[in-house]
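Hey, I'm writing a tutorial for new members on how sequence and structure tokens pair up, and I'd like a real worked example in the thread rather than a made-up one. If someone can provide the structure for the chain below, I'll link this post from the tutorial.
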Amino acid sequence: MKEVLETIPVWDALKEDTECPICSLMKKAEEDALKYYLGPAVMVPEIRVEINKKGYCNKHWQMLADLNKAQPLALSLDTYYEESKKLYKPKFEQIKNTSNPRKALKLFAQFEEAVQSREDGCLVCDYMKKRLDRYAATFAVLYKEDSDFRAALANSKGFCIHHTLDLVHAAKAELSGGDLASYLQLLANLLDNNLDRVQKDVWWMTQKYKSENKEKPWNGCEDAFKRGVDKLTGKGILS
């Protein structure tokens, strides 16, 4: 196998007993990526070239700004703007110099294509994708090689919908035959059973707000609405 296994973080995430251990791993990967691109890396010429060329998706530009690391982000933005203007300014000049509305609309359409092309990529998402590939591969290999891991996984709360699919894609490269079949069955079983569990918790939350159930116990469903969203959408999902 070409990928380096991430056995320790995968085991640790599984032991957290969350709705999706990969969500936990990916949120940490996202935090690491944001810190990396606002750290000393921003002064490395090769990294700045990558930032100027690809930049970040809209979500991660906003997350970088929210960290309030003014100097490194300003440095990145300054040269990223310069690269962007090379694409945009010729269109602006053409639009400003025409009085034909149809031609202006056509030029704005070309500008829109340039914007979409410019925003097609994200260094933070790329960083996270590399981590995701290693994590998903590690789950498959540990399932095959470690009986304790298989038992822990079978008794877990499974994964969110999106990361279940990521695990399926990784399994095709790491497993075959009976191992692949039993792993896919387990993933389907975990998702099926735990979607039912979460929905049941959400349902009980709706019932708890009825006056006749006011004094009845929550049965651990106080956060069911949050867990319900997490199971459906996941956290740290790539753009």
